[in-house]
Amino acid sequence: MANHKQIIILVMMCIMIISCQRAMVKDVKDEAETMSQAVVHGSSNTVESSQVAVMEHAVKTPEMNYAEYCSGCHGTEMDAFVDRKWKYGKEDADLFKAIKVGYEDEGMPAYAEAFTDKEIHQLVDYIQEGIANVDEYYFKNKENKSNVYPSEGLTVVLDTVATGVEVPWGMTFLPKGDLLITDRNGAIYRQSESDLVKLQGVPEVVAAGQGGMLDIELHPDYVSNGWIYMAYSKPNPDDPTESATSITRAKLQSDTFVNQELIFTALPYSGKRFHFGSRLEFDRDGYLYVSVGDRGSRDENPQSLDNHCGKISRIHDDGRIPADNPFVDVAGAMPEIYSYGHRNPQGVAMHPVTGDIWTHEHGPRGGDEINIIGAGKNYGWPVISYGINYNGTTFTELTQKEGMEDPLMYWLPSIGACGMTFVTSDKYPGWENNLLSGSLRFEYLERAVLEGNKIVHTEKLLPNVGRLRSVEVGPDGFIYIAVEEPGYVFRLMPQ
Ligand code: HEC
Fold first, then answer.
1. Which domains are seen in the chain, by residue range?
2. Which of 66, 73, 76, 88 maximizes ligand 1 atoms within 8 Å of its Cβ, making it the mutation to test the pocket?
3. What's the pTM?
4. How far apart are CA 442 and CA 440, in angstroms?
5. Is position 360 annotated as part of the catalytic site?
6. pLDDT at position 47, please?
């Protein structure tokens, strides 16, 4: 039998435990209330009886349930999950049914046992909020009938500069203002004030799939040396069905390219017709950077240094290899490689203040990234990614890993990022040094406001303008964009 002392100790312990529990419940409630998701608490007169329920359920927000039960298959980020073609409908009732009874034959488990109906409804709401997040990109219902586009603090009017180019992929300006425009189908044009001239002496390309005539760039000392650089998918001399992203430089003599020099070929050649990259950009020291996509060999190319695909390479203006490139001394590594682990980068631009090379790249479904390129760094594809497979399942559960770079920013859903530049002029008050990226998929121009190397604000400009392939700032300080099919080049005139 317990003596007096033991009973007193027992009672004291009980009191301590109960008051301690109350304090904990309060903490949980306080914490829960600061979360954006509303959590249902027991009403005040039943606090005692609902204590346990609160302890178990208050912290289980739909985010948490999603992360624990769904993310393994549907991607860690909610938006990636909703960025899908719905098989069974996207109404509340469809989602509810899918979660409750599952599609077990297809690999979707039933959650009738794991969740109450209320929890399933909360998950459905959570997913629907994510869909609303995606819907903000669909401007189709807000068709812009004029060429006037209001934006935060600035209205721009589109001025047509060029038409008649099918897929204007790259643009660059000659010193006197003429615009050189590549057409993915293999041509290069010069647009002057009055007319569009097709140039001669252009290298042969394999214009198929995503390949063809791609980017174009002037040498930083163009005025004294006349070199023009073009990136394109070059046919394999031994097997013309294969191609590789290559760079040729040449000089323009009236309307013909002469003195062609092939300075880079991204090996190996491949019969696949996608993920060529490729953007060209010089830095302040005169090094030329070229982005090359993984060429569709996701598991072979980007993480292996024995090829140029899924890489940013860095070369001298004549193709020589810089002695301080990060892998020049690594046996078996391609010495041109500057960074690796990329998927398909189609935007490269030098930051006007820091001189750093910024890129963006296409993720899979979800997970387009912006990165600042560092020597020898690994950007993780396909080991880490915020994206998911096109069938809605994950190919990697990792979004981060030791030794791999986190993106500066990522887009969920994927916007199909293409073309990148900084606003280097003062023609657009408030936009100075902003980063501009084109969107193929949602057909707009994204403006990102930076604080140092941080993106602190974004705005969607020119909704519905067309599949935006290329963006540059001209010598006149105005922003030029190229959209495709039908191809147009527009100049943005601030009002
Ligand atoms: C083991 C992998 C797996 C897990 C875990 C999983 N799902 Fe699924 N889910 C699938 C597959 C596979 C499908 C079938 C659709 C498809 O083939 O894309 C599916 C389909 C669905 C659908 C119907 C989609 C449509 O296209 O109509 C919904 C909604 C859904 N899942 C929600 C969830 C939620 C919410 C969770 C977490 C509670 C979850 N799933 C957990 C694999 C999974």
1. 1-41 (no CATH), 60-136 (1.10.760.10), 149-494 (2.120.10.30)
2. 73
3. 0.75
4. 6
5. no
6. 32
**Probe target for ligand 1 pocket from 68, 94, 105, 108, with the most ligand atoms within 8 Å of CB:** 108
Q: What is the pLDDT of residue 42?
A: 28
Distance in angstroms (rounded) separating the CA atoms of residues 442 and 460: 10
Q: What is the DSSP string of 428-464?
A: STT-TT-EEEEETTTTEEEEEEEETTEEEEEEEESTT
- The predicted pLDDT at position 26 comes to 32
DSSP E strand stretches across 202-342 = 213-218, 227-236, 239-253, 256-265, 280-282, 288-292, 311-315, 337-340
Question: Pick from 297, 320, 298, 302: which is nearest to 312 by CA?
Answer: 302
pLDDT at 81: 60
Would you tell me how many other CB atoms lie within 10 Å of the CB of residue 56? 9
In sequence order, what are the beta bridge partners of 370? 360, 409
User: What DSSP letter does each residue of 19-48 carry, written as one string?
Assistant: HHHHHHHHHHHHHHHHSSS------GGGHH
pLDDT score recorded for residue 35: 27
Report H helices in 143-264.
Answer: 222-225
- Residues of the chain with pLDDT below 70 are 1-59, 75-84, 133-135, 138-145, 365-366, 387-397
Closest Cα to residue 383, out of 431, 435, 333, 341? Answer: 341
Q: Which of 57, 275, 308, 360 is catalytic?
A: 275
pLDDT of residue 79: 58
Residue whose CA lies nearest to ligand 1 atom number 29: 95
DSSP 382: T
Cα-flanking dihedrals φ and ψ of residue 238, to 5°? Answer: -90, -15
Residues ≥6 apart with Cβ < 8 Å to 483: 168, 443, 465, 466, 467, 468, 469, 490
